[in-house]
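Tutorial sheet, problem 5. The two components below are modelled jointly, 301 residues in total.
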Amino acid sequence: MERELDLAEGEAREADALERHDLACAKERVREILGRINPRYADAIRLRVLEERSRDEAARTLGVSVATFDVVLHRAMAALRKALPQGGHES
Amino acid sequence: MSELDSELDLARLEPSEERRLLELLQSAYAPTGIDPARHERLLLSALEDPFAAPSAEELIQSERLRQALAGRGEHEDLNLARALSAAFAASERAPLVAPAARAPGEERHAKRASQPRQKNGLLLRFAGGGAALAAAAAVWLSLYSSHSRNSSPVQPAAADLQVLALAQSRSTAPLFQSDPGEAASNRIDRIASVRSRDLRDNRYALWGVR
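Model answer (structure tokens):
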């Protein structure tokens, strides 16, 4: 019984480590992809999508009107789509 | 201390810094080729103006995206936004440490972080565990491009043509070759003229008016 518990704990620790690794990889991937686009676009995505700031706050941070921010975010997403690696093997 | 001595003092560098400067000088003297994909990205990011006046189509699409992010309607970029959000923020929502092992302050923070972030009218949440989401999002981000390119084969072809039409990076060495008696300022003027012509041509190519 004790051995089974130890085994289960070990498996859980291994799963945790794998999850942490997956999370780190995913975050790194997002950072890397954002690094490929215009910094203003990256800022727009970071503020609104990743940090989930309000449109007003994001627009204020970028120094533009809310309407302009909406357009910038749309362009940013389009730029990001283009920047995504073809076939998923570019790094 | 003489002037020469003080110059010698200034010239002393750390070995690592000296190596870095040497590499920079060598790169400047004999630049190597740049990866075409990176070159394309640099060109496009340098030429595009994020704050340029929007077209009517861009206004429509940006409004649709705004609505979709607020949970009203659909937009082709909504899933991409979700994947980004999941990949980036999953660690905040997925407690990887048992709650009992946390200090009281950390516990409050973890509870707050694990609550669905629906502030500011953004609805980007998937249902499911954080780490699994992050992994799924990473895979999805990898596959997204090939899927979207396959589903609309016309756009990449147009984009490729557009890039081919742009001036490619090249050495300035030929621009330096001139009459020995030529003044340095003339050479600089010539280089500036050629480079500004390239820039102008690239802008025209991107605007589709060349």
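Marking note: The CA atoms of residues 44 and 62 of chain A lie 8 Å apart. Full credit if you identified this.
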